[in-house]
C-alpha cells in the first residue's frame, strides 16, 4: 500500500459565526487547519495511509491539534513537540455576495516557525512507494521552515519518492527577507507534480500570468501554454495542474481545472457552486484528490475530474478539512450531483 507524507504547519482556526463580521457577536468557532494537514486528512478519508509531519508546542493546544488529526485517521507519529513556541492561529471571516472573506494570520513565534530541519524525523521514511506533498505556505513561514522544506524535498527525491508541491502563494506570509520566487524556484526543481491556481505560477515562479484573476473570467486555452512553460523551465516536472476559479461573488464560484500531464492536456468538468458553505481548504482538497487520482487511475483526465469533484464537495462543508469518502467523490465525478436525499 502506498504511503503519503505531508509536511507543514497546522494552526488553530478561529472563525466568526456564520456570515458575521469579526466580533459582531462575542464568539469565535475554534477548529484546526492548514494546507498540508488538510491534504493528509483528505487522503486518510479516502482510506489511504497518510502521515503528517509538523512541529507543535508541548501543551494542551498542541496536543489538541494532534488529537484532532488522529481522530481524522492521520498518522501523527512523526510530529515533533517543542518546549517553547505556540500554535499559530488564523482568524477567518466568511464573506457573502460582494463582501469577500477575510483571513488574519497570527502565527509569529509558532513552534513550526523556529524548528530546525534536524529536529524532524525525516530519516528512513521515504522510498519509491511513498508520495510526499508540500505547499508554498511552508517555506513562506520562516527561513528555518524554508530550509526544512528544501531539505526534505531533496531527501524525498534521493529515495525515489514522488514529490508534489502546491505553490499556494500567500502575500501576507513572505516577511523574513526572501521573495517567493527566489525560494520557490529552488524547491520546484525537486517536484514531479506542480499544483497551482491562476496567479500562483506568476507570484511563486516569476512566470507571467495569462489572465486577470480579479475579472471573474478565465481564458482556459491560455493555461496550456502556461503549464508547458513551467515544464520547460523545470525539466523535472511531468505534471502541472491548474485550478480555475471564476469568482462571480464570495458565495458563487465556477470551479474547474486543467492538467498538462504525461499523456496530454485535459480540461475538467466545471461546477457552478452557489451558496458556498466554506471555500477555505478547497485547493487542498483538490491537491489530495489529484494525488489520489494520479496514484490510482490510469487516466490523467479521470484523476483531474476526481480532484475537481472532491474539491467541489469541500465547498459544501464548514472547516478546513474535507471529510468525504471515496464513494462520495466517485459518485459526483460520475455525474451524480443532484443533491437528492440518499435513503
Short description:
The chain has 343 residues and is of the alpha/beta class.
Write the layout of secondary structure elements.
Layout (H helix, E strand, L loop, with lengths): L2 E5 L3 E5 L13 E5 L1 H11 L3 E5 L1 E3 L2 H12 L8 E3 L6 E5 L8 E5 L4 H4 L15 E6 L1 H5 L1 H16 L3 E5 L13 H9 L4 E4 L3 H6 L16 H12 L5 E11 L2 E9 L4 E3 L3 E4 L7 H15 L3 H15 L11 H8 L10
Parallel strand pairs: 1-4, 1-9, 2-7, 5-6, 9-10, 10-11, 11-12
Antiparallel strand pairs: 2-3, 7-8, 12-13, 13-14, 13-15
Describe the protein's architecture and organization.
By secondary structure, the chain is α/β, with parallel strands linked by helices. 33% of the residues lie in helices and 23% in strands. Strands 1, 4, 9, 10, 11, 12, 13, 14 and 15 form a nine-stranded mixed β-sheet that branches. Strands 3-2-7-8 form a four-stranded mixed β-sheet. The protein has a two-stranded parallel sheet with strand order 5-6. The chain is globular, with a radius of gyration of 19 Å.
Notable features of this structure?
single chain; 343 residues; alpha/beta; nine-stranded mixed β-sheet; 11 helices; 15 strands
Overall spatial form: globular
The count of β-strands is 15
N to C succession of SSEs: EEEHEEHEEEHEHHEHEHHEEEEHHH
Name the structural class.
alpha/beta
Biggest beta sheet summary: 9 strands, mixed
Counting H and I runs of at least 4 residues, what is the number of helices?
Answer: 11
Strand content is: 15-25%
* N-to-C CA distance: 33 Å
Low-confidence stretches: none
The level of helicity is 25-40%
What oligomeric arrangement do these chains adopt?
Answer: single chain
Question: How many whole angstroms does the radius of gyration measure?
Answer: 19 Å
The overall average pLDDT, rounded, is 94
Amino acid at each position: 500500500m502506498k504511503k503519503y507524507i505531508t509536511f507543514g504547519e497546522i494552526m488553530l482556526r478561529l472563525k466568526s459565526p456564520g456570515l458575521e463580521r469579526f466580533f459582531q457577536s462575542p464568539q469565535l468557532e475554534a477548529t484546526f487547519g492548514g494546507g498540508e494537514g488538510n491534504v493528509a486528512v483528505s487522503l486518510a478519508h479516502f482510506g489511504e495511509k497518510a502521515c503528517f509531519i509538523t512541529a507543535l508546542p508541548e501543551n494542551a493546544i498542541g496536543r489538541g491539534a494532534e488529537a484532532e488529526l488522529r481522530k481524522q485517521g492521520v498518522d501523527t507519529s512523526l510530529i515533533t513537540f517543542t518546549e517553547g513556541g505556540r500554535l499559530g492561529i488564523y482568524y477567518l471571516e466568511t464573506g457573502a455576495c460582494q463582501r469577500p472573506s477575510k483571513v488574519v494570520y497570527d502565527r509569529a513565534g509558532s513552534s513550526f516557525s523556529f524548528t530546525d530541519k534536524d529536529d524532524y524525523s525525516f530519516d528512513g521514511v521515504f522510498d519509491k512507494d511513498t508520495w510526499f506533498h508540500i505547499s508554498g505556505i511552508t517555506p513562506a513561514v520562516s527561513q528555518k521552515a524554508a530550509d526544512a522544506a528544501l531539505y526534505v524535498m531533496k531527501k524525498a527525491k534521493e529515495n525515489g519518492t514522488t514529490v508534489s508541491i502546491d505553490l499556494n502563494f500567500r502575500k501576507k506570509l513572505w516577511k523574513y527577507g526572501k521573495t517567493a520566487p527566489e525560494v520557490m524556484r529552488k524547491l520546484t526543481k525537486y517536484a514531479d507534480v506542480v499544483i497551482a491556481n491562476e496567479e500562483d505560477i506568476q507570484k511563486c515562479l516569476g512566470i507571467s500570468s495569462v489572465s486577470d484573476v480579479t475579472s471573474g473570467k478565465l481564458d482556459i486555452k491560455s493555461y496550456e501554454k502556461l503549464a508547458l512553460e513551467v515544464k520547460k523551465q523545470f525539466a523535472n516536472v511531468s505534471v502541472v495542474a491548474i485550478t480555475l476559479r471564476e469568482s462571480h461573488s464570495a458565495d458563487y464560484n465556477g470551479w474547474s481545472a486543467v492538467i498538462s500531464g504525461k499523456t496530454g492536456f485535459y480540461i475538467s468538468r466545471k461546477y457552478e457552486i452557489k451558496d458556498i458553505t466554506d471555500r477555505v481548504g478547497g485547493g487542498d482538497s483538490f491537491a489530495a484528490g489529484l494525488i489520489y487520482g494520479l496514484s490510482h487511475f490510469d487516466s490523467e483526465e479521470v484523476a483531474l475530474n476526481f480532484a475537481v469533484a472532491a474539491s467541489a464537495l469541500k465547498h459544501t462543508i464548514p472547516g478546513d478539512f474535507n471529510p468525504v469518502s471515496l464513494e462520495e467523490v466517485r459518485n459526483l465525478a460520475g455525474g451524480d450531483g443532484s443533491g437528492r436525499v440518499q435513503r
